[in-house]
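Hi support team,

I've been running sequence recovery on a batch of backbones for a student project. Most finish fine, but this one hangs at about 90% for roughly twenty minutes before it completes. I'm not sure whether the input is malformed or the queue is just slow. I've pasted the structure tokens below so you can try to reproduce it. Let me know if you need the job ID as well.

Thanks,
M.K.
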């Protein structure tokens, strides 16, 4: 993945700002003169507001509502498909087909209300479709309301959600054409085991000489592919502390030094390619950096304690641990993501977006962009 130039979350194009102001005026008008009638047909039907379908991203559309609507509906159904968990009862009974959910798009706030199952195929599929739609609404999905002439009105919307059983393949093809196995009998391993891997990462990683006095600390995580011949390929990097290019280069160089030291994964007795995360920690050995290193270690301990508390469903206590960790390392994007996700699950969406957008501001990219856009909008 190529790193993009950092840009502010609030640095929006004037066309996007105009679009948002127009939406606000629609909602304001609807609140001023509410019409409680529910319409099945309107002059302009509702559609979900998704950033990738806004006109400034598609100059050739020239503001065409039909183009926006087709794009938004297509993306919505893709999001629904990606979040559906096929009910086990339906799977065992081989139930397939479309569930149809009815809802009302409210002109006052663009939310879905009165969600009901119009058509069900059984096996828990109807309930699962409702779950996903409720979750998307809570996460911040909003709709452009329907209109009669220039007046926003309540419109009933029918959403068909398809449930289709597919035989899961043991692999997938990456965007770069690699065949990556997810169903493996034996995981990839470092020669000599975990202890040897830890020693290799600690002893062979070089801190950039030009930055030794900077006392920069942080983690870079690499998504790697362990190939069938035991070689390693780095497919992506996440520089959680925004250490910079010199540190990213040293992380890549360390990964390349591990060539020939891996045992590939196996599927049905044959070597196959699979993915493996590789994390490296940068801490300067210069004496004056002892305090910075100790602070980093403390923040990581607090982060781990927070993760343990979250596993125990003690979300508020986990957030407190991450608050402490971020007080020590305020720009650690991994910690910001953990806390933001926990806040989102607690329905504290405004606070969650502050963390999510801070990650975007620091790195210029996010590894959870679809979620960020859905919850936070721009």
């Amino acid at each position: 993945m190529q790193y993009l130039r950092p840009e502010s979350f609030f640095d929006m194009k004037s066309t996007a700002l105009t679009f948002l102001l127009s939406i606000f005026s629609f909602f304001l008008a609807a609140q001023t003169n509410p019409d409680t009638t529910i319409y099945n047909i309107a002059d302009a039907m509702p559609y979900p507001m998704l950033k990738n379908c806004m006109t400034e991203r598609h100059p050739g559309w020239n503001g065409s509502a039909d183009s926006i609507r087709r794009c938004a509906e297509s993306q919505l159904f893709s999001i629904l498909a990606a979040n559906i968990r096929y009910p086990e009862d339906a799977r065992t009974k081989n139930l397939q087909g479309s569930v149809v959910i009815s809802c009302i798009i409210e002109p006052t706030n663009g939310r879905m209300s009165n969600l009901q199952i119009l058509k069900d195929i059984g096996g828990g599929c109807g309930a699962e479709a409702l779950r996903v739609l409720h979750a998307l609404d809570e996460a911040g999905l909003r709709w452009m309301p329907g209109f009669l002439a220039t007046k926003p009105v309540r419109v009933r919307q029918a959403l068909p959600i398809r449930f289709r059983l597919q035989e899961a393949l043991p692999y997938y093809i990456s965007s770069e054409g690699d065949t990556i196995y997810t169903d493996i009998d034996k995981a990839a391993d470092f020669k000599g085991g975990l202890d040897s891997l830890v020693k290799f990462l600690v002893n062979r990683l070089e801190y950039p000489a030009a930055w030794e006095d900077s006392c920069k600390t942080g983690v870079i995580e690499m998504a790697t592919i362990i190939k069938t011949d035991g070689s390693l390929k780095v497919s992506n990097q996440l520089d959680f502390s925004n250490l910079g290019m010199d540190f990213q280069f040293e992380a890549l160089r360390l990964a390349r030094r591990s060539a020939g030291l891996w045992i590939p994964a196996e599927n049905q007795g044959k070597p196959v390619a699979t993915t493996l995360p590789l994390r490296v920690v940068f801490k300067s050995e210069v004496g004056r950096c002892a305090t910075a290193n100790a602070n980093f270690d403390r923040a990581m301990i607090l982060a781990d304690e927070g993760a343990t508390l979250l596993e125990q469903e003690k979300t508020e206590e986990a957030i407190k641990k991450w608050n402490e960790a971020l007080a020590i390392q305020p720009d650690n994007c991994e910690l910001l993501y953990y806390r933001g996700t926990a806040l989102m699950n607690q329905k504290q969406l405004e606070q969650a977006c502050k963390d999510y957008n801070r990650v975007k501001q620091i790195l210029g990219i996010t590894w959870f962009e679809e979620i960020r856009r859905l919850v936070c909008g721009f």
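--
Follow-up from support: It reproduced on our side and the slowdown came from queue contention, not your input. The longest strand covers residues 151-163. No action needed from you.
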